[in-house]
Amino acid sequence: MSMASSDTKHRILICIGDIHGYITKLQNLWSNLETLIPPPDFQHARIVFLGDYCDRGPDTRKVLDFLIELPSKYPKQSHVFLAGNHDFAFAAFVGAIPPPPDGSEFCDTWEEFKASEEREGWYKDYGYEKMHLQGRRWAGKITVKFNAAKGTEYKGSIYDAGPTFESYGVPHGSPDLMKAVPDEHKKFLADLVWIHEEDNVGIETEKGVEFCKLIAVHGGLERGKDIGEQIKYLKAKDTRIPKVEPLSGRKSVWDIPQELSKTPTIVASGHHGKLHVDGLRLIIDEGGGLPQNPVAAIVLPSKTIVRDTDKN
Length: 312
Known about the structure:
Blueprint: E1 13-16, H1 23-36, H2 39-43, E2 46-49, H3 60-73, E3 78-81, H4 85-93, H5 117-120, H6 133-138, E4 146-147, E5 152-153, H7 162-167, H8 177-180, H9 183-191, E6 196-205, E7 208-216, H10 227-236, H11 245-248, E8 265-269, E9 275-278, E10 281-284, E11 296-300, E12 304-307
Parallel strand pairs: 1-2, 2-3, 7-8, 8-10
Antiparallel strand pairs: 1-11, 4-5, 6-7, 9-10, 11-12
């Protein structure tokens, strides 16, 4: 499939799926994109990272270094870094999320999920009293060893955060991580957006290239809930919410909500451990953080899928 030329109407937009601490996969995917896309198009591309940079894989620290350096290495590109549920939890642990907008306390987020505290072994060390629920779950020590849903062993916590701690040179669940994570990494985590909206994004359809609105959000938008309200709290990064469904939901956020069918809207996400391209619904997470799976990206308007494993 040929890549579009440097016609401004056809600006290349690339959505990159969950990286989960695999620096080699990220480097290989990036160089495959660079090889495949004509240089002027690549240099001016918009790159949307769909979230989940940390956990599971061994090199979260190096992944964050790579992402932080992109804007200076590719100054004509524009980069969007979405927060995944894993990144939000990491940020919550190291104090890189905004306080609740209504002046409430982060401890107010615990109550609804209290029944899981013992099984998930929530973090209860230095600073836990003022920590968001997801930070405590992320740094917790899960009491069951096997994740039946995924068929894998948990790595430290329900989030598989152990390798992230180790990438910064500290043992899983240690409060020393708060000091070990450099300020520029905390800033990167604090600056992650929960949603990205863009108009006039070209996408190949049966009728040729159509220009649509794009909404990118790590998990998706919830069905049966007012879209305007969702977009509003996602833009505001409302940390009162114990579990942000558009970042961490499964079935509830899989489809494009009915409400969005009035004006054709591309909804791009990662999160689901699958590659699923159905009309305007783009779910780009072939990796799922599993060592044997590739990390994938989709290039618009052509809808070309590129993987770290492609041999160019």
